[in-house]
Design goal:
Blueprint: H1 23-35, H2 40-50, H3 58-65, H4 72-97
Length: 99
């Protein structure tokens, strides 16, 4: 039975051109898989707003995170949030090791 999707059924836009074999995208996703905090959605929105870009929806950020949609601007913000989280964890470890 064929699946028929109307414009009213979903606002989700699948990017059929997404290719994981792009090494920079693959590395970015490996990095965020390892370092992105659980509270990444609001932090990513804040990062995007600071750059002067329009506020994306939380669903759009989650779709980029889950590789459903490819948006390099949002992927970059996710990597930046993951990097900040990694630095914070390293600083906490450094400061607490001296105690």
């Amino acid at each position: 039975m064929p699946l028929i999707i109307s414009k009213y059924m979903s606002k989700l836009i699948n990017n059929s051109n997404f290719k994981e074999d792009n090494s920079h995208n693959k590395k970015a996703y490996e990095f965020i898989d390892k370092h992105l905090p659980v509270t990444y959605v609001d932090l990513t929105i804040s990062c995007i707003i600071k750059k002067g870009h329009p506020t994306p929806s939380k669903a759009l950020i989650r779709n980029v995170r889950n590789k459903t949609i490819l948006r390099n601007d949002i992927l970059l913000a996710l990597v930046e949030v993951a990097y900040e989280n990694k630095e914070a964890i390293e600083k906490i470890k450094l400061l607490t090791s001296e105690i």
